[in-house]
Write a structure and sequence with these properties.
Layout: H1 18-27, H2 30-36, E1 38-41, H3 59-67, E2 73-75, H4 79-92, E3 100-103, H5 116-120, H6 125-141, E4 146-147, H7 171-185, E5 188-189, E6 194-195, E7 198-204, H8 223-230, H9 232-239, E8 244-247, E9 251-252, E10 255-256, H10 261-271, E11 277-280, H11 287-290, H12 297-307, E12 312-313, H13 317-328, H14 330-349, H15 369-382, E13 384-388, E14 401-404, H16 430-437, E15 441-444, H17 463-470, E16 475-481, H18 500-510, E17 515-521, H19 529-534, E18 537-540, H20 548-556, E19 616-623, E20 627-628, E21 633-642, E22 648-658, E23 669-678, E24 683-691, E25 697-698, E26 704-705, E27 709-716, E28 723-729
Parallel strand pairs: 1-2, 1-12, 2-3, 3-4, 4-7, 7-8, 8-11, 14-15, 14-16, 16-17, 17-18, 20-28
Antiparallel strand pairs: 5-6, 9-10, 13-18, 19-21, 21-24, 22-23, 22-27, 25-26, 27-28
Helix pairs in contact: 1-14, 2-13, 3-4, 6-7, 6-15, 7-9, 10-12, 12-13, 13-14, 15-20, 16-20
């Protein structure tokens, strides 16, 4: 990954494995071929969702299926279990074809990093690439060689719980992060010369468009918007060399994706150039029956296979019916053979035929000190300072603080959604980190969480004790927000504000007259207007993972100046969503005509927003010339001066507007960014490369064209920055 934030094209090419794959394919029976297309779920993966993941086979029964060549991949973790099944596959089956062991490693494995939406706040793809390297090594140490990540669905509706798993609302930022994460996960193991794991980007395609933020619902947008924005991260993942992808189990623009040849073959393979294999999401093949586009599981298997699904996760429709389909119709025979070729190519690409087993010494990767330090560093870079009235932060060593709130000392919730290991004592809470730092404070939850969801808790039994403690302190640190279970799969929310109980408690704290520093932990953009207004400082900490407390303490105490920037717009009210920065220009002014009569028109905090402890000014923006050709790359320079006594990172952002275009285009849209350290009391030049092709519009026939004419560039610290330059594309 390069610091210039330019997308690269290095897609997976299975050509070098063609001869080996074909030789193996010739020796396979139809049943063995179909076995390669079957994914079994054999061990309890924990409470992954609120949905039934189906029955798990026993170890003995599954081993017999592997021995007979009826299984190609497995959903499981555990080095000993994986090696047991791998030994059966390699040494006891007729052809000795090794297995892929897949698992969800969404933001770290045992060392949990910030939830992906929080990580996107770093605006640092290279940092996120390095984080995924740690995740890949830990997963490999735990018997996993295939990871169902990265989740790169662009989302502009934070009611959708899975927004926590993605990179936010912008196609450029999302694409660069998708590319970085694929490359990080597929880091080469120096001991084998092959990647630790195969990445499986998801969910192809458009899953982030779930209507109303309701998971599994239909997804709908115009084809122009779909390809202009939502498809970009998937293309980036393909170009980065991703070895596999997962089909979405939703309907997109009237087609059930898992049964859509248009999306899975014509777009993904023929247009995007993907040459890895497609795995269905869990149960998605049989769900074609529930979509009522297939009469039964056999018909569902036929649709999915011809559409381009290569691996059936969990529904066993391929295992039960593809052998018969193979004999019935040459189309199915060819589709099965091609699917087997794709899967075998990936198995060769990750070195399974040479290195099928997971070594015992791989355990050294688990929770390694360097992994924890990396998680701490990503965490502090993810934190976004939203408000700092009268420079109340950093905390003062001469004051006594009251630490309170449901997340002030809560190790269970801090890792966030999809933290599969429930790390317990491995997690650092805010209280633990502040004690370690020697801060003078008292602590009481005040309004603890009660129950799994507890949105409507009325328990105020802790108020009196907490308020009495608050009276003994100079200022209050209020750590509030969401439980981990409030975001992730099937975790949509009708209201994306804080629960009423947390506001009732906040109002009582406000009555003490003490200044309030609020720390907000969450897995989505939130419409937390009252929290912002009632707090003297507001720190967005997301769900930061294993080292959450240390990361937060580093920022609160001032050993690190916050540099996080929002990857998604924070609306004032839930009723404003979807709300994002790159709206198409309107025929009537958004400034002069208020769209809402009962509330604010603008956002609470715009895309790209974030404050710093340092005072950094933008003194000049320089572009070498003002006329460019469509195949050139603009080099832009910004002079930054840090007037403070603290080193700080600055995220310089560039947006563009096509002044006159043949079709409506956004008022402004991100076209480039760079992150740079500005030492205390210094002046530096930040450079940014912006390919002119990023200024393209999408035509109605879905072609990207850079039209000649004038463009405005806006350069600054968030999406509401002012005009900096005008250029002409010839």
């Amino acid at each position: 990954m390069n610091r210039d934030n330019l997308l690269v094209k290095q897609p997976f090419d299975p050509g070098c494995y063609t001869e080996q794959v074909n030789q193996l394919l010739e020796r396979m029976t139809v049943r063995e071929k179909v076995g390669q297309l079957n994914l079994d779920h054999v061990s309890d993966s924990g409470d992954l969702t609120d949905c039934n993941l189906g029955e798990r086979s026993s170890m003995e029964a599954e081993a017999e299926k592997v021995r007979r060549g009826l299984v190609g991949t497995m959903l499981m973790k555990g080095r000993e279990e994986a090696n047991y099944f791998q030994k059966v596959a390699v040494e006891e089956s007729r052809l000795g074809i090794p297995l892929l062991f897949g698992f969800d490693v969404i933001h770290g494995h045992k060392t949990v990093f910030p939830v992906p939406l929080g990580g996107a706040s770093t605006w640092d793809p290279q940092m996120l690439e390095e984080a995924e390297e740690y995740a890949a090594r830990e997963a490999y140490a735990d018997g996993i060689n295939w990871i169902y990540a990265p989740m790169i669905d662009l989302c502009r509706d934070p009611r959708w719980g899975r927004v926590a798993e993605g990179a936010g609302e912008d196609p450029l930022l999302g694409s660069l992060i998708a590319q970085a994460k694929v490359r990080g996960l597929q880091t080469v193991n120096p001991e084998t010369g092959y990647p630790y794991v195969a990445a499986c980007f998801k969910h192809f395609c458009g899953y982030g468009l779930s209507q109303g933020g309701r998971d599994y619902e239909e997804c709908e947008t115009s084809p122009r918007t779909l390809f202009m924005d939502y498809m970009k991260p998937y293309q980036a993942a393909v170009d980065a060399g991703a070895l596999s992808t997962m089909s979405a189990f939703s309907v997109l623009n009237g087609q059930a994706v898992t049964g859509s040849r248009y999306y899975l073959t014509e777009v993904l393979r023929e247009q995007f150039g993907f040459r890895g294999f497609v795995c269905s999401d869990y149960g998605a093949v049989k769900e074609l029956v529930h979509h009522r586009v297939a009469a039964d599981r056999k018909e569902a298997a036929a649709q999915a296979l011809l559409a381009g699904v290569d691996e059936d996760m969990g529904s066993h429709a391929f295992a039960d019916y593809c052998e018969a389909l193979y004999e019935e119709d040459q189309r199915f025979a060819e589709a099965v053979d091609e699917a087997v070729r794709r899967i075998l190519s990936v198995k060769f690409a990750v070195g399974l035929f040479e290195f099928p087993y997971f070594p015992e010494e791989a355990e050294k990767y688990m929770l390694a000190p360097e992994a924890r330090e990396a998680a701490r560093n990503v965490g502090r870079h993810s934190i976004v300072l939203l408000k700092n009235q009268e420079k109340i932060l950093p905390l003062s060593p001469s004051k006594k603080y009251f630490l309170t709130g449901p997340l002030s000392d809560n190790v269970e919730e801090m890792p966030g959604a999809w933290a599969q290991y429930h790390p317990g004592t491995n997690v650092i809470s805010v209280k633990m980190a502040l004690e370690e730092a020697g801060l003078d404070f008292l602590q009481s939850d005040g309004c603890p969480f009660t129950g799994k969801y507890c949105f409507d808790s009325q328990d105020d039994s802790g108020f009196a004790k907490a308020l009495k403690m608050a009276e003994e302190c100079d200022e209050i640190i209020y750590v509030c927000g969401e439980k981990a279970a409030w975001s992730g799969e099937n975790r949509g929310r009708v209201s994306i504000d804080l629960p009423k109980q947390q506001y009732r408690y906040l109002r009582e704290l406000k009555k003490t007259g003490r200044k309030i520093i609020s720390v907000l932990m969450c897995g989505r953009a939130m419409s937390c207007q009252e929290l912002a207004e009632s707090s003297d400082a507001l720190v967005l900490a997301w769900h930061l993972g294993t080292e959450a407390g240390h990361s937060i303490a580093d920022v609160l105490l001032g050993s690190y100046s916050p540099s996080g920037r929002l990857p998604i717009t924070f609306p004032c009210y839930t009723g404003q969503v979807p709300y994002y920065h790159s709206w198409l220009s309107s025929g009537r002014s958004r400034e002069s005509l208020i769209r809402y009569k009962d509330g604010e028109n603008g956002p609470l905090y715009p895309f790209g927003y974030g404050l710093s402890y340092a005072e950094i000014t933008y003194d000049a923006v320089h572009i070498s010339r003002n006329r460019w050709k469509a195949d050139e790359t603009i080099r832009l320079e910004v002079v930054l001066t840090n007037h403070s006594e603290m080193d700080a990172y600055e995220v310089v952002q560039a947006y563009y507007q096509d002044v006159v275009s043949s079709l409506p285009t956004p008022d402004r849209k991100l076209c480039g960014f760079t992150k740079i350290l500005v030492p205390a009391g210094s002046t530096v030049k930040a450079q940014m490369l912006i390919p002119v092709e990023r200024l393209a519009l999408m035509t109605l026939d879905l072609k990207e064209v850079v039209e000649p004419g004038e463009f405005i560039l806006f350069v600054g610290r968030d999406s509401m920055c002012g005009e900096s330059a005008r250029i002409v594309v010839e």
